[in-house]
Automatic annotation (TrEMBL), chains A, B:
Enzyme Commission (EC) number: 3.1.3.25
Protein name, per record: Inositol-1-monophosphatase
Keyword Cell membrane: no
Any Pfam family hit: Inositol_P
Keyword line: Hydrolase, Magnesium, Metal-binding, Quinate metabolism
Pathway involvement of the protein, from the record: Polyol metabolism; myo-inositol biosynthesis; myo-inositol from D-glucose 6-phosphate: step 2/2
Organism of derivation: Helicocarpus griseus UAMH5409
GO MF terms, alphabetically ordered: inositol monophosphate 1-phosphatase activity; metal ion binding
UniProt similarity note: Belongs to the inositol monophosphatase superfamily.
Length: 331, 331
């Protein structure tokens, strides 16, 4: 059991923000090189068209790792690139202070120079994500949080963005009036009842008119797919997205985002409906579960607390989505 | 037939950019008011949850309209809000110099304070969109073009972003390796073979593994849905998206975007596959057709010109998508 003083935590938080900004600048510098016609050799292909890794990705991870090792040699480091090269898909986070880092989330966006890419730095103690830093350099958006110190956009705007006169409650007929964020992901196998078809059936239920889809129609306000799990979570913390539902991510994709969203007052639980969805106690997500359902921060309405509104929304989503099949044996 | 001198056109272009910036600032100011807790009374609901109009929308249109009337009293003005209040769904653009304006595209995003909203100002002469200005104030991105003067991001970066050593050709197996942008839209009727189901079937074909979906699997690199037709077109002009396919937009949603994309070297044609998709001559889109397929600017490869690569991609998309049913009688 590690106990960090408030002062120590504050120092780590400042370090993480600075590190995020520097790592993000590396990502942006490499984009500038490509625009200047000098970056083509940086791209190399991995196993399929949806899985491109760039040299930049590895360079940024090396940089982040060495900076952390230098400043906090006793902390554990877990990065996407180093993890991906290993044999194990085990969940490696324990109670030790652990940095969980994705040097580049939204890789496909990055290779196409679409703005929705970022670096994601999470710091976890006793299994709890306590610090999160997400920096999207092309749009110069820095999301950050530290337990007890709030969640912030660019260190000046508190998240969620709308706080006055109070944080809006969840809509009374949620998911109606909600923006629903979801991703098509990399698993595109055309297997009957496979993950892709289960996802699309779930998207359709959420989108269709109320009364449609055998009563499962949710008539959400909008369906959004950005191609970055990390930024999806950041936008839920912001209040821009109401619901994010996804399977197949890994802990480095979501650690920082979960820290920020929880600190902002959001709820994160599992994507897969439990056997008793209407009555089960709603528990916080397991970081390594690969199955995530996030609900934005919500204030009270006249008839329920913010938490009650969030839990009601969770159950309404569970009623409309299929189970997804993602294990830790690979994507 | 109107002939504008190069000098006149340049003046109109400068006016349009300045107008776009000022209109976008009005949108952003209203967001700031909401964040400060003073904007709740600005929101009023229209006919359904996916169709919210804000007072801001109308205020911005009034502002843009009056500025244009003052400076160019002889020009025709066509705006989303004024049009929507009228009885006619006819296509009203003729050879006269016409301003085609959407004061707020991405209305759902705007109400949720998700960054993907913008003002869109197109200027059309002799049926040709000759000037386009799109300003997304929350992310401070200004896209602009004028026939013969190039297309630009923030007036300093030429579009598409990657020009050196040459604009990338379309991928040899497009839509594989392409980012495919598409929108779920407002028509969520759960009608068998209705627009929503035809769209989703098309999305699935584009996404599925090569060989899947009875040979229609396109294995695109990513599927994106932002909730703004206008910004979709801007990102295609940028090169960030390779393909955008959509039905149901109106001319004010796309006029500026088409101007910018065409000036950047992109191709815009119809979303609906013609009877002879493999051999038909590919024609430029009709602005009022409500059916749009956009392909990013492309350079030559060793075996084909940029235009040939774009046309090959159009035919590959047509092979995978369903006909959509949008008339001019309403959405």
């Amino acid at each position: 059991m590690t106990n960090l003083s408030s002062e120590e935590l504050g120092e780590i938080y400042a370090f993480a923000i600075d590190l995020g900004r520097r790592a993000g600048k590396m990502l942006l510098d490499a984009v500038e090189l490509r625009i200047d016609g000098m970056g083509e050799d940086l791209l190399s292909e991995k196993d399929n068209a949806v899985d491109i890794v760039t040299q930049t990705d590895e360079d940024v991870e090396s940089f982040v790792k060495s900076e952390i090792r230098r400043r906090y040699p006793s902390h554990v480091f877990l990065g996407e690139e180093t993890y991906a090269k290993g044999q194990s898909r085990d969940y490696l986070i324990n109670e030790e202070p652990t940095w969980c880092v994705d040097p580049l989330d939204g890789t496909v966006n990055y290779t196409h120079i679409f703005s929705q890419f970022c670096v994601s730095i999470g710091f976890i103690v006793n299994h709890q994500p306590v610090i999160g830093v997400i920096y999207a350099p092309f749009q110069n958006q820095l999301f950050s949080s530290c337990t007890g110190r709030g969640a912030w956009l660019n260190e000046k705007r508190k998240l969620p963005l709308i706080q006055k006169p109070s944080i809006p409650p969840m809509p009374p007929n949620a998911p109606n009036k909600c923006i629903f964020s979801c991703e098509w992901g990399k698993d595109r196998r055309d297997t009957p009842d496979g993950n892709m078809h289960r996802k699309v059936e779930s998207f359709l239920n959420m989108a269709a008119e109320v009364g449609g889809r055998d009563g499962k129609g949710g008539m959400v306000h909008g369906v959004r797919s950005l191609g970055s799990a990390t930024l999806d979570l950041a936008y839920v913390a912001m209040g821009a997205f109401d619901i994010w539902w996804e399977g197949g991510c890994w802990e480095w994709d979501v650690a920082a985002g979960i820290a920020i969203l929880q600190e902002a007052g959001g709820l994160v639980t599992t994507a897969n409906p439990p056997p008793d969805p209407e009555t089960v106690q709603i528990e916080d997500v397991r970081l390594g579960s690969r199955l995530y359902l996030a609900i934005r921060p919500a204030g009270p309405s006249g008839t329920e607390t913010g938490r009650e509104g969030q839990e009601r929304t969770v159950r309404e989503v569970w009623r409309r989505v299929r189970h997804l099949d993602y294990s830790r044996l690979g994507a």
